User: Fold this.
Amino acid sequence: MNTEKCLVPGCKNKPWSRGLCNTDYSAVRRLIKAGKTTMTALEQAGKVKPAIRPARRDNSWFIK
Ligand SMILES: [Zn+2]
Assistant:
């Protein structure tokens, strides 16, 4: 059962990106664009989840 919800209190939408639903994520994007906040600040405040990086091979082990 998928009980995942948007991080915004009271919001019951399904998370779309960074733990936020599509609506709240667009709101955040607008605030960032307007210079009101940054993704880093929101991440540190626990208001967004860290970006899920696309699965990419980490080849740095070979050159250590
Ligand atoms: Zn939401």
